[in-house]
Amino acid sequence: MSSISVRVLGAVPKPEGCWEVELVLADVAHVRARYCLHDGLEPLGLAHADRTRVAAVVEAWIAEQMRSR
Fold this sequence. Notes:
By secondary structure, the chain is α+β, with helices and mostly antiparallel strands. It contains one helix and four strands, in the order ββββα.
C-alpha cells in the first residue's frame, strides 16, 4: 500500500473529459498534472502504486466538485 500524501489544490476542466490538476505530493512537490477520464493521470514519474493513489484522490476530488455544483 502506498503512503504518498496528496492534496488537490485545484482543477480546471479541459476538452475531451480532461482536467488540469494542481497537486501537492508528499507535502513537498507542487506539481501540475493532466487527468483524463478515459486515460487516467499522466505518469508524473511516479511508481504505479503512487500513481494509482494520486489518481484515486484526484477522482474523488473532481467527483465532489461536480456534486457541489
